[in-house]
Amino acid sequence: MSAVLLRAGLVVGPESTRVGDVLVVDGSIADVGEGVIAPVGCHVIDASGCWIGPGFVDVHTHLREPGREEAETIESGALAGAVGGYTALVAMPNTEPALDNVALVSYVLDRGARTPLDIAVAGAITQGRRGEHLAPLAEMAALGVRLFTDDGVGVQDPSLMRRALTYARPLGVRLAQHCEDERLAAGGSMNEGALSSRLGLVGRPALAEELMVLRDVELVALTGGALHFMHLSTARSVALVAAARARGLDVSCEVAPHHFTLDESSCEGYDPLFKVHPPLRSLEDVTALRGALARGDVDVVATDHAPHAPELKDLPFDEAPPGMLGLEHAASLTYEALGDEPDPRRFFALLSRAPARVAQLRHADDRVRHSGQGGALEVGEDANLVVFDPGLVWTSRNEDLHSRATNSPYDGRAMTGKVRATVAKGRVLVENGELV
Amino acid sequence: MIETLRGQNLLTLDGVSRQALVEVLDTAESFVEVNRRTIKKVPALKGRVVASLFFEESTRTRLSFETAAKRLSADVLSLAVASSSVKKGESLRDTIATIDALGIDAVVLRHQSSGAALQVSRYVPHVRVINAGDGLHQHPTQGLLDAFTVRQVLSERAGTNGVESGAALFEGLRVLIVGDVRHSRVARSDVAAYAALGCEVRVAAPGTLLPTDVENWPVKVVDDFDDALEWADVVGLLRLQRERGSGSFVPSLAEFTATFGLTIERARRLRPTTIVMHPGPMNRGVEIDSRVADLPCAMIGRQVTNGVPIRMAVLYLSVVGSLEGAR
Question: Which of A67, A284, A356, A384 has the highest CB neighbour number within 10 Å of its CB?
Fold first, then answer.
């Protein structure tokens, strides 16, 4: 028997919170309450002053394997995730080659099963992510794939996107869209505006994103399909999805920590660490996204963790690839963004419960060897748990990161709130903020 | 606000003060005379090494910088990118590191990416970096030599000399910049220089070739190009940046020429005192009629000539960091 007791934390359920203990025995939650007796030989973790909630679920992680193992591997990404409080990651399919068939999906699932986390796979919507022809969605779905995206780019052809939504609907899977009209984005490398003009950088207008959000909301209405909007970066994009939700459409959306933390002025020094697609937007957008997070207009915080080898982030701004690391900062940045008195239920909704729902990871699935994620912290659930200390102030250092890559824009930044412990499938992976 | 170029990198004219601009123009004035001598050389940068790195094609800027460096007695390391290790995939950082390892005092950089000069200045903080054009961003020495040429012509006409006139001749001077403003680093540097020196600047271009945020620029967009030609004291033409895809921003080159080209018919509307400028290389028959380019009001050759003293002044101020011994 293996037992872990999380002692005297604020136990955060979906509806209510209370101070208590969580006892984990052999991979599942055995008891929740006050003054739970620790069995003999039990590993006790003091959680006083901390929040105890379901382990975080990232629906948007670039694990780079296969093809770019110099930037990240499934294993290194899983460890970085554990430090960030994640117990499940959804691997994005823009690997080399793209995850657009059963063989490649199986490969990633197998590698993922060797890590202590649950590694799910998002399959490509189109063959080779080229946006020309549907990938074998049904075959991949039979393997347990629940989310499909061409992320890195959106499906540009509206007719093909319509077909994908219609085809996916009876399979019970969800499509996820990287919303940017690439023709309107015009190969740009930062937000279009006065700053891009002054810096002489071609801009990606907010409208390039918003047009595709608008288009896809209507395609969902037309097809009755289900769609998850990835990394929305503008106030208007979030408003469009909120309005679609109010119409009763099956839509969900995520925002990434960098989009509610950093604004376009970070690009002033042409440092490619701040280059990302969609780009960092105006300060007004950043403020609006923070408001939307607290209000509940945003379902999910997703990292868009995008490791790149150092030499690729040391190119001229327009030549460097977009993307930045996110797994080890998302929880702190989300906590900061939720205002002066963050609601712990909202915090765990954004980082765990809603993403688990969107990615359909709520229940264990033997086909993919996954446990249940994003739980309500009730007896009998799989023990995927995180202990988050909202009072801990720390400074992020890129040399301390666990990713293979170091392209984080937060080097030297003070952060509030930190993951103290991560328990995945009953196993303590992180304690006192460090890998065990 | 940048108050002097002495001992500084020259990356942009954006935010460079009037005083700093005039200091460069005045320093250049002292080098004009050197270029008229039989022995066109001063020992100001003797023993200093200037590296010239052009990642993009260039005729006049490169020759002009290298001539300027040599006339200051600097040793010049000139990298022809087309035949360098850049073609083997060497990165910008490694290329700069290699040249820096040879021992250099300044690097003159032309690069197709905006911001490249600023990035290089972070790689080699002990070396002075002179931006010779970065992407769509800035071409500061072009802005300086354009302002220098205007001041030279106007002061000659007024029977004074440039140094004595300071910035006075620019006050209220009506400058019209025409053409591909959106993709032009020359326009960004010219507008910054002319505005800082006190000129009234207007721009004329098809809507697609105006910057998307033109309302934030210290310029007015003209409604009628032909009327604006009568208004202008200085007409600065810009090259249509066909290599940056500008061709697809207008229906055809012929239509661009018909609407915003300085044709011989339009040139007749210019006042006799108006100066016509073009940074080169010209697309003759596109933004400027071949015959207009050869009119006496066109200062295109003089701009090239003035490039040398301006770049001597920039190298001198930036590398030596003081005005001592400028002559």
Answer: A384
